[in-house]
Structure formats: C-alpha cells, structure tokens
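FORM 12-B: Structure-to-Sequence Request
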C-alpha cells in the first residue's frame, strides 16, 4: 500500500547522506502519491545540503516555489 498525500512533496537529498539514506529516501518517494512530487538528488553532498551548496539550494527552493504557487 502506498501513502497518499493531498499536498505537494519535494525531496532534496544528498547522495552521500547517511542519516536519511539516499536510496531509501528515493524508494519512499517512488511509492508516495502526491499531486505534485519531485526528487532532487544532490551529488557529492551529505545531510547538509543547505550548508554545503547554499546558492544551489536557494535556486532549487525558488524553482519548487514556482511549481506550487499559482
């Protein structure tokens, strides 16, 4: 049984994240149903995406915002 949410869901995950393991997070995201959903893997980054790549993270958040704000 997959989980269904009635809100947008976006995953921003470092491919070297060992606290929220990348592959497990992707598997969870793949099984999730939501009106808008996307998975953003960030290469060569662990759990601290905002700290390690702040400019990229900010651009990504603005892109996500543009997808959900009408």
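FORM 12-B RESPONSE
SEQUENCE OUT:
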């Amino acid at each position: 049984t997959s989980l269904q949410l009635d809100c947008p869901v976006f995953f921003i995950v470092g491919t070297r994240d060992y606290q929220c393991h990348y592959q497990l997070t992707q598997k969870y995201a793949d099984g999730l149903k939501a009106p808008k959903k996307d998975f953003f893997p960030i290469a060569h980054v662990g759990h601290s995406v905002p700290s390690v790549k702040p400019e990229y993270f900010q651009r990504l958040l603005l892109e996500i915002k543009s997808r959900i704000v009408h």
